[in-house]
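FAQ: What does the model actually see?

It sees only this:
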Amino acid sequence: MTMSRRRFGALVLSAPVALLASRGMARAQAILATEALTIATATGRHRFEVEIARTEEQQARGLMGRRYMPSERGMIFDYPQVQTVSMWMDNTFISLDILFIDAEGKIVRIAEKAEPLSRRFIPSGVPVRAVLELNAGTVERIGAKVGDTVDISFLGAK
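And it is asked to produce this:
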């Protein structure tokens, strides 16, 4: 899983890690609502079924503790407003490709093959509306690039 950190001016707010630890990371993770998502690249349209992390707790947990994710699955972090975010791989056992997406559904940054269990922050670099996590190697396999579009109900791309 990744953890998101939101920046508001000079203040950095982090997800409630202590709360998650107190509830037991080993317990079975609840399945989130899912939705179909399509990424349009030069190689075509690529469909994924993604879990949607909307609450702070869901976003703090992300894909933590999971050891496997099917190839056409993923998780999208739906932020209520456009903001600069950072992700990390603490307690995430699978390597991920991380796509940062603006409010119109355009990919604005890609971090490929994020290192499992790393505490290194992976910043969006610019304000984003959503972050998509897919299995490592997916970006290369589908030919995704900055500027490609992501189509899901809550983003502007159609």
